[in-house]
Amino acid sequence: MAAQYGFSFDLSRCSGCMACVVACQDENDIPGESRSFRQVVKLENGQYPTAQLAFVSLACFHCNDAPCVEVCPKGAINRSEATGTVDVDQDLCIGCRACAMVCPFGAPRFSAAGAMQKCHFCSDRVLADMAPACVHTCTTRALEFGPLAALSQKQAQKAAVKIVKGLTATGN
Questions:
Q1: 10 with 54: CB under 8 angstroms?
Q2: In which domain, by residue range, is 30 found?
Q3: Prior bond to 49 cis, omega within 30?
Q4: How far is CA 15 from CA 38, 55, 94, in A?
Q5: In this predicted model, what pLDDT tens digit does every residue of 85-111 receive, in sequence order?
Q6: Which of 2, 7, 36, 4 is nearest to 145 (CA)?
Q7: Strands 116-117 and 109-110
Q8: What are the angstrom distances between the C-alpha of 19 and each of 23, 78, 142?
Q9: Are residues 28 and 66 in the same domain?
Q10: pLDDT above 90: residue 68
Q11: What pTM does this model have?
């Protein structure tokens, strides 16, 4: 995989069903009482009668300049050439939690043994040409996965369609 892969999320489609969280827990054998690598955050805005509710599904962003890679004292965190993911070598991780202190998204989780774990795009599934478990399970198709360039182009096309529809609705 030469392209950088990532997730795309459509806020307007997410129902907050948590299927992505459960799929992540199942795929990664994460016990139910532990935090999944994917989280769904509820956003509330306004007050009755105009209150609004939205949900945001978040996981590791596999940053291009990942601060966790830079701060790891043992070099346990690196970018995979095969998938573009920011991966953790469990044998090298000493559980110092420096990665957790610098991650702006709260992605690092720690196993009972103390080693850091996080989203890895379900790389075994991706290498087998399947979508990550969270994307595959998303019932409303709010989550997508693929090359970032293709996802960005798709989002730009959606935005263009909305702009054109807005202009034609107002008569401009």
A1: no
A2: 1-59+120-172
A3: yes
A4: 15, 7, 38
A5: 899 999 999 999 999 999 999 999 998
A6: 7
A7: antiparallel
A8: 6, 29, 11
A9: no
A10: yes
A11: 0.83
The three state secondary structure string of the chain is CCCCEEEEECCCCCCCCCHHHHHHHHHCCCCCCCCCCCEEEEEEECCCCCCEEEEEEECCCCCCCCHHHHHCCCCCEEECCCCCCEEECCCCCCCCCHHHHHCCCCCCEECCCCCEECCCCCHHHHHCCCCCHHHHHCCCCCEEEEEHHHHHHHHHHHHHHHHHHHHHHHCC
* Domain CATH number, residue 65: 3.30.70.20
Closest of 59, 64, 58 to residue 4, by C-alpha: 64
Proportion of the chain above pLDDT 90, given as a percent = 66
The residue assigned the tokens 């139910």 is 32
